[in-house]
Design brief:
Elements: H1 8-13, H2 29-37, E1 48-53, E2 61-67, E3 70-77, H3 82-96, E4 100-104, H4 109-116, E5 122-125, H5 140-153, H6 163-171, H7 189-194, H8 201-214, H9 222-228, H10 231-237, H11 241-247
Parallel strand pairs: 1-4, 4-5
Antiparallel strand pairs: 1-2, 2-3
Helix pairs in contact: 3-4, 5-8
Amino acid sequence: SEWGEESSLFQSKVLGNFPSSSEDVLIPLNWIQEAETRNVNYISSMPVVMGIDVARGGNETVYTICKGFKVIDINSHNNENLSFALGKAVELINKYRPELIVVDDTGLGWGVTENLKQKYRVFPFVSASEPIDKEKFINLRAEAYWYLRERFRNNEMDIPKDTKLTDQLSRIKIDFSIEELGKIKIISKNKLKRDGMDSPDWADSLMMTIWGVSQTDSYHSKEYIEQRHDISYWEQKRIDRNEYSRTGYG
């Protein structure tokens, strides 16, 4: 009843049918392209959050800063030196004053977390940790990516036109392996690499940032809630009910 009989999740996990390559995409490309042309003007009470996906193994360290669901800056570098990563983080913190900093707390990310939390409010993000909704998601990464997906589906996201970000977001897929029947799982970074794709550093940084927005005090404030549920706001965004019914996700 939640996924719909035509959804790829129902087809895979209930009927045992393997989905087509287009059906396993988490965020459809047209949703991403619409977010690139959207100009969301949020009220001042919306939280500023920074997400840091820390480089390892030749990947990029990516810093994404959002005000609510609007991306206001993305920075990246290939330097795996901890001091360099910390210095860049502090530079951006001083510039944007985020209410919360979400850090990929694995590998070198642990060092970034431990140093930043001495002075700032930090959320250590561990992809394999337990989700809030244990019945629906296999881990926190799946839950956070699904939360990001819903922001795109509901026409709430405002992102810059960036080829790398668009490409990585459009390559994130649902993993339809059957070892966890009924739970949503996102394809791993290792599997993406085995398929010849780059590590989704930019997509992961955005995912952690938007998840962080939902974890802030400002997100749950009365003023913010009223703005998010303002009738004129939703009329303006025109949520695509037909697309929602077609996919069956929710």
